[in-house]
């Protein structure tokens, strides 16, 4: 087993980016349950994200979504974030909520609509210049619902053309994260449905185009850690959108539904010594019925615990068993680490770093939740309309 000191050192390098939209109201097509104290502005979302970092020490950045987080002065917003003890992270584009995009955004048969979509993506790069963000995260809801509705090949050509224009606009220190999703809202063919399609477009574009793996965007039973291992080997794994699911894109707390899968994913990261190699470890979740800030804190802890277990894998013993063809032995080495209770080690690390060993409890005891309920009265709550 790896020694605790090395594990702690590696864990201290783990940075998890939280999504601004996780702090706003969310739900399903059936109902959005509004919660008291929910932020009303990007500034208040950032204040909530800062609480997650305050109690975990591992969530120093917050991803924005445009236009959900549009402000007049993004440089000022970056300063606000800094004053709160965090920084602005990935800029997420949104070409999935405009009537013009019914038949697609960058893949739409209508060139006027494609121009409009590309214009938005280029605007997002302008915002990155103002916020100092490195990553432009692109997710396209583009797809079709019926065979024949549009030409699959033409849509790929349109997508490639748009991605090329945006890629060429990126600054030298900026990256593109191309996120894929199997289905929804399209229910027959999605234009970026899987890692292979994203990877192929990234290779066509250039070295600063990388794949974003949203753990909720695969067919049931997909071996996500295989995709991780493959993209790491190819040098094209740019980011994760961590969440968990029992069925589809449920966007539940990372590690809640399948902590073993999260461990297997983080083991491939550790095995590739990629914990602090520039991969963005982001959360992409919605807290439809649970209190939002403590849910995000819990999710950060779940990623920390999966990572700590992965760091405890006895790599030499595993390698030896693998090379000997010792099937049971090799599996046992991995399971030993997974079955190790790492909570005492993490509590020790937090205490050493001046943090409360129980971040969720510490947040609850802080009274922040009650305070914002009292302060945030009136105004339009952020997120999906209740
Ligand atoms: C799409 C997605 C994408 C975001 C959105 C909030 O399902 O995962 O990452 O733009 O959720
Ligand atoms: Mn996502």
Name its key features.
386 residues, alpha/beta, TIM Barrel, 8-stranded parallel β-barrel, two-stranded antiparallel sheet, 14 helices, 12% strand, binds 6-deoxy-beta-L-fructofuranose, binds manganese (II) ion
Overview of this structure, please?
With 386 residues, the chain is α/β, with parallel strands linked by helices. It has a single domain, classed as Divalent-metal-dependent TIM barrel enzymes (TIM Barrel, Alpha-Beta Barrel). The chain is 46% helix and 12% strand. The protein has 14 helices and 10 strands. The chain has helices at residues 4-12, 42-56, 74-83, 111-131, 152-169, 195-205, 224-234, 259-271, 292-311, 315-324, 327-338, 343-352, 359-366, 368-375; strands at 16-19, 61-65, 87-92, 135-139, 143-144, 175-179, 189-190, 209-214, 237-242, 280-283. Strands 1-2-3-4-6-8-9-10 form an 8-stranded parallel beta barrel, surrounded by 6 helices. A two-stranded antiparallel sheet has the order 5-7. Helix 2 packs across helix 9, helix 2 crosses helix 13 (359-366) and helix 9 (292-311) runs antiparallel to helix 13 (359-366). The longest helix is centred in the N-terminal third of the chain and has 21 residues, at 111-131. It is globular. Bound molecules: 6-deoxy-beta-L-fructofuranose and manganese (II) ion. Residues 139, 179, 214, 241, 284 line the site of manganese (II) ion (MN). Residues 72-249 form the Xylose isomerase-like TIM barrel domain. Keywords: Isomerase, Manganese, Metal-binding. This is L-rhamnose isomerase / sugar isomerase.
